[in-house]
Specification:
Elements lengths: L2 H17 L15 E5 L8 E10 L2 E2 L4 E8 L2 E9 L5 E7 L8 E5 L10 E5 L7 E6 L3 E3 L4 E9 L3 E2 L3 E8 L6 E7 L5 E6 L5 E7 L8 E2 L3 E6 L32 E3 L3 H7 L15 E9 L5 E9 L3 H13 L15 E2 L4 E2 L1 H6 L10 E2 L2 E5 L7 E3 L7 E3 L2 E3 L20 H8 L2 E2 L9 E4 L20
Parallel strand pairs: 10-18
Antiparallel strand pairs: 1-2, 2-3, 2-6, 4-5, 4-7, 7-8, 9-11, 11-12, 11-15, 13-14, 13-16, 16-17, 16-18, 19-20, 20-21, 22-23, 24-25, 26-30, 27-28, 29-30
Length: 465
């Protein structure tokens, strides 16, 4: 070949290369990648469910496709099975569902090829919640001022204990509505215990708020009766009840009688003024003291009462009331007498109403019941009336507050002789049963080293209550 021919042939090949003439034929377009879908029916935790994998390409099933099935566990993917699709492009395997929904996500993956990167799909297998059974157990009764332990037990039907949040609801005696009082959490054993100490009869209920694998539940109502620490007063058959009723006083404070003596607080003095104290009284605010003390009421519970007395006998009165508490001798109530308002008949607080309620009281700047114009010894703050309903007063104008109890006694709350424990306790603290069977509920305090108050004129031959 001449040089000219060689140059012509080289140029032709160069042009052919640029134009694509004489090159290898181009390959066909990459095939459509497969489509992977995963489904599984809902199931209870701890039960197997069937995971179905379907592989298609352009809507047609792909048979013989290899699929790796995994599930998420504690945030990491773990193998479940290697499956191969059948002629319908379907493959199945089983997984057992966990209680945590985050551990019930499954993933399928087909391997990559030269034509495509493979396919991946995930599916969150739904949990079928189990029914719950919540029980609340504990004592049916307990003594006041102690604790009762309530145990909540949460179980799933067919699924064992449930760990989760529960609410403790309470309804006290006299209430119409339930109140949530505690938020608790059951442990791995499905139980939680709580100590409660209501001061009245109560009803309790537990509500489990539900978890992803178990439905919420509610316990039956549990009744918890609050019993008195000591036996209630047993009254004789036919004994009348006081004509005037009073609400129970506040619960006792502290241990024992816990007697406290103080000057008259401003709020108390304002309540006394115009009722149990008024201008012209023989003793003023500075000469009076407020005695607060715990006592046993007739139902056997501890209450907090108060009386106003003269400063010179406050320790004696407090000591006597402490001794009554120690001996478990009940007092019906111990409200200050000013609670009963002004009495135009007595020109002081309404002692008629106080007696009709069986209320124990002390200072009351008033006239003698049944003796208009005669100042009562209570005006000096040294007299104490105890349980007047069961211990009537025989006045020149009749018996107050009732006649039924006049000829009857009671080992705890009604005395008719100096041998009764109440009379002896009073005497041991310098409070004399001054008028005996004429004014049964009345005691006069004699200051240590002092003397009795001189009786007002007109009281030498009659009882001056």
């Amino acid at each position: 070949m001449t040089a000219l021919s060689a140059r012509l042939l080289g140029g032709f090949l160069a042009i052919a290369t640029v134009l694509g003439l004489g090159a290898a034929p181009a390959t066909a377009a990459d095939p459509e990648p497969p489509v992977l879908t995963i489904t599984a029916p809902r199931a209870h935790e701890g039960e197997p469910t069937t995971v179905t994998v379907v592989v298609t390409r352009l809507g047609a099933p792909v048979s013989g496709a290899a699929v790796t099935v995994e599930r998420r566990r504690n945030g990491a993917w773990t193998p479940v099975a290697e499956v191969v699709t059948d002629a319908q492009g379907v493959a199945t395997t089983e997984v057992t569902l966990a209680r945590d929904p985050r551990d019930n996500t499954v993933r399928g993956t087909t391997p990559p090829t030269q034509e495509h990167e493979g396919a991946t799909a995930t599916f969150d297998v739904p949990l079928e919640k189990r029914d719950s059974v919540v029980t609340l157990r504990g004592p049916e009764e307990f003594k006041d001022e102690t604790e009762a332990t309530l145990t909540i037990r949460w179980r799933a039907v067919g699924g064992g204990p449930v760990a989760g949040n529960v609410r403790l609801l309470r309804r006290l005696a006299g209430e119409r509505k339930w109140h949530a009082v505690r938020r608790l959490a059951t442990g791995a054993d499905g139980e939680v215990a709580v100590d409660v100490s209501p001061r009245v009869d109560s009803r309790w209920r537990a509500i489990a708020v539900g978890v992803p694998w178990a439905r919420r539940g509610r316990s039956d109502v549990h009744r918890l009766d609050n019993l008195p620490p000591i036996a209630p007063v047993s009254m004789p058959r036919g004994a009348p009840r006081p004509r005037r009723s009073l609400p129970p006083q506040k619960h006792a404070v502290g241990k024992g009688a816990n007697a406290k003596i103080s000057r008259i607080p401003g709020g108390v003095w304002r309540q006394m003024t115009g009722r149990s104290w008024h201008a012209g009284c023989p003793v003023g605010r500075a000469g009076l003291r407020l005695v607060r003390v715990n006592y046993w009421d007739y139902t056997g519970y501890r209450r907090r009462g108060e009386v106003v007395v003269a400063s010179g006998v406050a320790r004696q009165v407090a000591g006597a009331l402490k001794a009554m508490y120690a001996a478990e001798l009940p007092i019906r109530s111990m409200y200050r007498v000013d609670r009963f308002g002004w009495s135009a008949r007595l020109h002081g607080a309404d002692d008629y109403a106080s007696m009709s309620a069986g209320n124990t009281s002390a200072f009351n700047c008033r006239e003698v019941v049944g003796r208009p114009g005669v100042r009562s010894p209570h005006s000096y703050g040294r007299s104490l009336d105890i349980n007047p309903w069961e211990n009537p007063y025989r006045s020149p104008r009749g018996v107050f507050p009732n006649t039924w109890w006049l000829s009857r006694s009671h080992p705890e709350v009604a005395w008719r002789s100096r041998s009764h424990r109440v009379v002896q306790i009073m005497a041991g603290h310098g409070l004399r049963w001054t008028y005996g069977l004429q004014d049964i509920h009345h005691f006069d305090a004699v200051p240590r080293g002092g003397r009795m108050i001189a009786l007002p004129r007109g009281c030498a031959d009659v009882v001056c209550h």
